[in-house]
């Protein structure tokens, strides 16, 4: 029970950590003239989505109801952000979202603690 | 016996006389002396240091910023910077969209001097402040230290032409009034706006050939097209070429030369690309015909007399300006050497002509085209068609793009049903939602023209594939629609003085996707000896809200390519703010680099102290994206 809890917790921490790093990368891209996407709506969009992912990951880390919905929403945001990052030519952000997906997988595949 | 002072005086006088003899800038293979590289408009560099084998190692050698940029959010209009850098006199020279001249060290980009004419920064004829660079002249034997034996010229939006000393940037006092000639003094017919000097003059021997740009689509009666030949030293007018016969000039206008020109220096022939007459989309006021409108025309350099002219669009109703200098090349074909020219066009045809006679080397066929249904209009029953070399755009429009249609819930398909379309040269219409026009006013090929490798006889050109909609509106209906939709921002252009205004839009769906199939921009290479297409590849990338679309889409391109003897094609021109090097043999992109805005210009290629440089002005153009910049960036191989 404790092991599954740790694994699930690790998963959400990986997700949140990758998402926060992703947000930092996205902010850098938004403001850096050398990024090729500075000041664009797309760069702004992924700042928002990565921050959302981080927030959702932290919420998922707290056991409670609605985890399936939150988990599903997380996955959609993760995949969508990864796709957007690919279209924005931001490979670092794509990699971070891939790491976040690993975190999501760790979370969802962790055995549930029994009542 | 003459005394030494007298002998010295005589020598000084002789040298002064020699310096008064004028000449073109001495041709140097390592230099880039004109807008198109050379007077033949070849856009070709004989340098071979950078090759397909090593171009991937190209890196930024230096960057410079001019400070002259505007996104239009303040008092200064937006800037469109399309300047070709010049390398001559051991200096890189550029004009800026604020009409200043900057002179830079060629190996560091350090600013040597600047000249600021304090020009009016207002959108007098164009929607943005535009500049395509500067021109250079030097005396046949310039005397060291003699002021203004070497000169740089820049024009302004309000028709002023300035000449400054190429070493110091100080105005040349013998040119016009204290270094300034007001070209507008010769704007005497329908002078409704100034003759904007956005394209640098073409300089040959002791003459400047000066065209101008006007306010498109605004007036039916506009200044008639002229080219002025000015003395390079004094600015005095030597001759004027008129594109429109004086007896009809009052009721029409333009057919001007707003793009660059070419010169055959062996035969003293000036080649001018003549634009379309006004009003651009209705010809009921000019039914008499304007034979020199929308043409490529050859003039005698000394007199301006027309030697020959070939009209490329009869009674132009589509604004298909001839918009680039023809490229001059000696064509080796069937055992003969033919002095030829290659003329690109908005309509996407590539005309290969004998440049001494204007006769086609590859056939030009007059084909029947649809009539106009507009009252008062009489469209030409035929138009010239070129099948070889293969046009850069097809005769039929590319068709609906399923993705754009699905994304807009069928908007594209529904809109298509409301449009008139009967192939190329379908005239603008009053019916329905207007006429689908392809290719349209954005081309095809734009003012960058094409480049040639004269030894391999390979011609390279970038082009766009864009579908636009032309809708004529009777005057009262136009005024109501323009008031509701917004003049220009809504695509409404008045053509004041004609019975109709026009709404001109691009065929996009409501979320801004092109309704037509990609690719939207390509780079093509042709074997001029046979007319065969060697390769054609999508070029550039569409970028919207930062998102890059697939490379297979290409992008609309503005600017042009340069070819090197090293076997490379260099170009910016695309929407995605990248400059690229392509393999001349295959069209494969071998190198690309991000710059700060679309490099909507021609690069220059030069050699300095044994190192080859490729330099771009990255300034942006609001037709592509809102991004603007003031960056000059030079690339070279690492030491």
Provide structural commentary.
With 115 residues, chain A is mainly alpha-helical. Chain A has one domain (2-109). Chain A contains 4 helices and no strands. The model of chain A has no long low-confidence stretch (mean pLDDT 89). Chain B has a single domain (34-636), classed as 8 Propeller (Methanol Dehydrogenase, Chain A). The N and C termini of chain B lie far apart (58 Å). In chain B, the strands form 12 sheets. Chain B has a 5-stranded antiparallel beta sheet with strand order 1-10-11-12-13. In chain B, a hairpin with a 7-residue loop joins β23 and β24. Chain B is mostly beta strands and 639 residues long. Chain A binds chain B through residues 33-34, 36-37, 40-43, 45, 84, 87-89, and chain B through 545-549, 576-578, 594, 596.
List the helices and strands and how they pair.
The complex is a heterodimer of chains A (115) and B (639).
Chain A: H1 2-31, H2 41-61, H3 67-87, H4 91-109
Chain B: H1 4-20, E1 22-23, E2 44-45, E3 59-65, E4 79-81, E5 86-88, E6 91-95, E7 101-104, E8 111-115, E9 129-131, E10 135-139, E11 150-155, E12 160-165, E13 180-182, E14 202-204, E15 207-210, E16 226-231, E17 237-242, H2 246-249, E18 262-264, E19 269-274, E20 295-300, E21 306-311, E22 327-333, E23 336-343, E24 351-354, E25 364-368, E26 382-386, H3 402-407, H4 411-417, E27 435-437, E28 450-453, E29 458-464, E30 468-474, H5 475-485, E31 492-493, E32 500-506, E33 521-527, E34 532-538, E35 543-544, E36 547-548, E37 562-564, E38 568-571, E39 578-583, E40 589-594, E41 604-608, E42 611-618, E43 631-636
Parallel strand pairs in B: 2-37, 4-9
Antiparallel strand pairs in B: 1-10, 3-43, 5-6, 6-7, 7-8, 10-11, 11-12, 12-13, 14-15, 15-16, 16-17, 18-19, 19-20, 20-21, 22-23, 23-24, 25-26, 27-30, 28-29, 29-33, 30-32, 31-32, 33-34, 35-36, 37-38, 38-39, 39-40, 41-42, 42-43
């Amino acid at each position: 029970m404790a092991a599954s809890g740790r694994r699930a917790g690790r998963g959400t921490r990986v997700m949140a950590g990758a998402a926060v790093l992703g947000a930092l990368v996205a902010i850098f891209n938004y403001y850096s003239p050398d990024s090729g996407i500075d000041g664009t709506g797309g760069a702004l969009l992924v700042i928002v989505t990565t921050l959302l992912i981080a927030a959702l990951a932290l919420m998922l880390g707290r056991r409670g109801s609605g985890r399936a919905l939150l988990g599903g929403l997380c996955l959609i945001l993760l995949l969508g952000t990864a796709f957007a990052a690919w279209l924005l030519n931001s490979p670092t952000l794509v990699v971070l979202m891939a790491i976040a997906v690993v975190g999501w997988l760790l979370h969802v595949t962790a055995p549930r603690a029994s009542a | 016996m003459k005394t030494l002072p007298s002998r010295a005086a005589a020598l000084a006088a002789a040298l002064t006389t020699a310096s008064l003899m004028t000449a073109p800038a001495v041709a140097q293979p390592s230099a880039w002396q004109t807008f198109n590289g050379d007077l033949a408009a070849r856009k070709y560099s004989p340098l071979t240091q950078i090759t397909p084998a090593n171009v991937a190692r190209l890196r930024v050698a230096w960057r410079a910023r001019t400070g002259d940029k505007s996104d239009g959010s303040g008092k200064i209009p937006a800037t469109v910077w399309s300047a070709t850098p010049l390398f001559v006199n051991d200096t890189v020279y550029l004009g800026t969209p604020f009409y200043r001249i900057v002179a830079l060290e060629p190996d560091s980009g350090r600013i040597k001097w600047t000249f600021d004419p304090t020009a009016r920064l207002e959108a007098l004829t164009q929607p943005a402040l535009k500049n395509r660079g500067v021109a250079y002249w030097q005396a046949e034997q310039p005397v060291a230290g003699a002021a203004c034996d070497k000169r740089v010229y820049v024009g302004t939006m309000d028709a002023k032409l300035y000449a400054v000393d190429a070493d110091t940037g100080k105005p040349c006092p013998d040119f016009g009034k204290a270094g300034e000639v007001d070209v507008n003094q010769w704007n005497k017919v329908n002078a409704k706006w100034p003759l904007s000097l956005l394209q640098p003059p073409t300089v040959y021997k002791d003459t400047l050939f000066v065209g101008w740009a006007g306010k498109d689509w605004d007036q039916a009666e506009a200044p008639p097209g002229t080219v002025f030949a000015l003395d390079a030293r004094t600015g005095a007018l030597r001759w004027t070429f008129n594109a429109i016969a004086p007896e009809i000039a009052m009721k029409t206008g333009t057919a001007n030369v707003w793009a660059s020109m070419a010169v055959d220096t062996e035969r003293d022939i000036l080649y001018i690309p003549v634009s379309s007459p006004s009003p651009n989309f209705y010809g009921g006021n000019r039914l008499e015909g304007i034979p020199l409108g929308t043409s490529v025309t050859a003039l005698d350099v000394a007199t301006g007399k027309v030697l020959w002219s070939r009209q490329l669009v009869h009674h132009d109703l589509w604004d298909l300006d001839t918009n680039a200098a023809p490229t001059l090349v000696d064509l080796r074909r069937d055992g003969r050497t033919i002095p030829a020219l290659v003329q690109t066009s908005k309509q996407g045809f590539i005309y290969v002509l004998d440049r001494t006679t204007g006769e086609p080397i590859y056939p030009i066929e007059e084909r029947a085209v649809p009539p106009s249904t507009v009252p008062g209009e009489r469209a030409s029953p035929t138009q010239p068609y070129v099948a070889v070399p293969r046009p850069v755009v097809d005769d039929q429009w590319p068709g609906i793009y399923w993705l754009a249609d699905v994304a807009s819930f069928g908007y594209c398909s529904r809109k298509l049903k409301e449009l008139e379309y009967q192939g190329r040269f379908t005239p603008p219409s009053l019916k329905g939602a207007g006429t689908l026009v392809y290719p349209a006013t954005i081309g095809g090929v734009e003012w960058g023209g094409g480049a040639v490798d004269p030894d391999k006889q390979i011609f390279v050109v970038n082009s766009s594939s864009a579908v636009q909609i032309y809708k004529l509106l009777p005057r009262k209906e136009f005024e109501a629609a323009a008031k509701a939709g917004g003049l220009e921002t809504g695509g409404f252009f008045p053509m004041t003085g004609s019975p109709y205004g026009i709404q001109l839009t691009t065929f996009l769906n409501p979320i801004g996707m092109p309704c037509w199939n990609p690719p939207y921009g390509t780079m093509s290479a042709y074997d001029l000896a046979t007319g065969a297409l060697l390769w054609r590849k999508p070029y550039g990338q569409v970028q919207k809200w930062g998102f890059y679309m697939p490379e297979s889409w290409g992008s609309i391109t503005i600017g042009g390519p340069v070819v090197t003897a090293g076997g490379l094609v260099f170009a910016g021109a695309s929407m995605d703010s990248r400059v690229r090097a392509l393999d001349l043999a295959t069209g494969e992109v071998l190198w690309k680099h991000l710059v700060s805005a679309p490099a909507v210009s021609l690069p220059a290629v030069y050699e300095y102290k044994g190192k080859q440089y490729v330099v771009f002005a990255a300034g942006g153009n609001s037709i592509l994206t809102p991004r603007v910049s003031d960056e000059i960036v030079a690339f070279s191989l690492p030491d």
